[in-house]
């Protein structure tokens, strides 16, 4: 439930003032108003976080306040809007993000998976020292405050390099272990700044990472339109060392989170069919707090998606499906998969496209056909919400 008082505190009215030379004087009544407003905001913002309690792991379950917690979430497909919001965060963009959170609250979701592009948040000085892009972190903190107020948790998907428009040459010139240090820096900054918020469900080390054996393998692959959704965390790795390298990567990045957030939950977005191998659940599952495979039901093999669920359940960890959609199946087949999977898993995260507000001027470039496609997916989620949040016992 949102807190209107807290929103008021982020929308402070303009106050008349007198400006003389290099000083500005506020009328006495305005000073009194500001003092009262400050106290009011402090109390309101404290109350805004009250409905949320930290989520923890208990064996193969997620718990909140001692009760089983189930994830019903989405992620925004408006990638250009997301990036513009973090990099710029203009008043117009912040208002548009508020509308999106309002839409999620109306949908009844309790989790948002936020896609964070590495170099929107991290840079390197001429001295070779990494630095945090403060504007991006400030805008992310604003999103956290909106989510916390609305009672929505965040799964922070970090270290992604989905587009190469701002990709610095120095990153691709690095050995993979040096790249890990850049990734660890980003995760450390996230944990340092956001750990006090109970709205952080978990830190996702990366979305769809892989270990490549070939020395000349591309760092980025899995291209759809202008995006590359798969990133190699290492390449040129001898086959007999690949599993050890996969575990080292998870351990290094997990340590970066735990340094600043000892209770922070850690996972990564796994390609569902990858059970074995360096980053397969068999190899690195024991190092994660929860597993988060990406599972898309297919009309060509209707039983495929549920087989993946059962395979990941064998890890004995909480299982939150981090991505799923009807685009490879149909609304009916997608609903059937959700109905079968919900009693087995700890949560499901799918997709939505913006706020549904046609007046939002950012990121509305996709065709009407694509938007209708996502609208059908969203309709299935609306119909399945209560079932996902409280399914019958398996």
Do you know the CATH architecture of the largest domain?
A: Alpha-Beta Barrel
The major sheet is characterized as:
8 strands, parallel
Number of strands: 18
Number of helices: 13
Identify low-pLDDT runs.
1-50, 356-365
Backbone structural class: alpha/beta
Radius of gyration: 22 Å
The tally of structural domains comes to 2
As a percent range, the share of helical residues equals 40-55%
Give the C-level CATH assignment of the largest domain: Alpha Beta
Describe this structure in words.
The protein has 394 residues and is an alpha/beta fold. It folds into 2 domains: 1-48, no CATH class; 54-389, TIM Barrel (Alpha-Beta Barrel), CATH 3.20.20. Helix content is 41%, strand content 21%. The protein has an 8-stranded parallel sheet with strand order 16-15-11-10-7-6-18-17. The chain has a 3-stranded antiparallel sheet with strand order 3-4-5, with no helix packed on it. Strands 12-14-13 form a 3-stranded mixed sheet. The longest helix is centred in the last third of the chain and has 22 residues, at 368-389. It starts with a helix and ends in a 5-residue tail after the last helix.
Could you provide a short overview of the structure?
With 394 residues, the protein is an alpha/beta fold. Helix content is 41%, strand content 21%. It folds into 2 domains: 48 residues, no CATH class; 336 residues, Glycosidases (TIM Barrel, Alpha-Beta Barrel).
């Amino acid at each position: 439930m949102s807190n209107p008082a807290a929103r008021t505190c982020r929308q402070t009215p303009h106050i008349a003032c007198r400006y003389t030379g290099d000083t500005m004087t506020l009328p006495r009544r305005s000073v009194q108003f500001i003092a009262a407003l400050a106290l009011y905001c402090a109390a309101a913002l404290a109350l805004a976080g009250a409905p949320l309690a930290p989520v923890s792991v208990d064996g193969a379950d997620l718990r909140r306040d001692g009760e089983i917690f189930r994830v019903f979430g989405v992620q925004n497909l408006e990638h250009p809007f997301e990036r513009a919001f973090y990099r710029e965060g203009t008043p117009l963009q912040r208002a548009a993000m508020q509308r999106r959170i309002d839409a999620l609250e109306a949908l009844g979701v309790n989790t948002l998976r936020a896609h964070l592009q590495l170099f929107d948040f991290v840079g390197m000085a001429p001295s070779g020292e990494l630095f945090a892009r403060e504007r991006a972190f400030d805008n992310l903190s604003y999103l956290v405050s909106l989510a916390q107020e609305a009672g929505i948790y965040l799964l922070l998907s970090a270290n992604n390099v989905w587009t190469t428009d701002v990709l610095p040459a120095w990153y691709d010139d690095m050995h993979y272990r040096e790249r890990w240090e850049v990734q660890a820096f980003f995760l450390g900054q996230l944990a340092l700044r956001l750990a006090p918020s109970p709205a952080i469900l978990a830190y996702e080390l990366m979305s769809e990472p892989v270990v490549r054996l070939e020395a000349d393998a591309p760092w980025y692959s899995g291209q759809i339109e202008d995006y590359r959704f798969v990133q190699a965390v290492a390449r040129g790795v001898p086959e007999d060392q690949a599993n050890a390298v996969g575990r080292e990567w998870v351990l290094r990045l997990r340590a970066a989170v735990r340094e600043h957030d000892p209770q922070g939950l850690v996972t990564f977005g796994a390609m569902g069919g990858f059970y074995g191998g360096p980053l397969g659940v068999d190899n690195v599952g024991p190092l994660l707090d929860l597993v988060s495979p990406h599972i898309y039901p297919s009309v060509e093999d209707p039983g495929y998606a549920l087989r993946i669920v059962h395979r990941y359940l064998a890890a004995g960890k909480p299982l939150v499906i981090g991505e799923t959609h009807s685009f490879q199946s149909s609304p009916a087949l997608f609903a059937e998969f959700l109905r079968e999977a919900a009693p087995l898993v700890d949560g499901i995260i799918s997709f939505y496209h913006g706020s549904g507000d046609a007046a939002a001027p950012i990121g509305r470039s996709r065709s009407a056909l694509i938007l209708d496609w996502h609208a059908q997916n969203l309709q299935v989620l609306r119909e399945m919400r209560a079932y996902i949040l409280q399914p019958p016992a398996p």
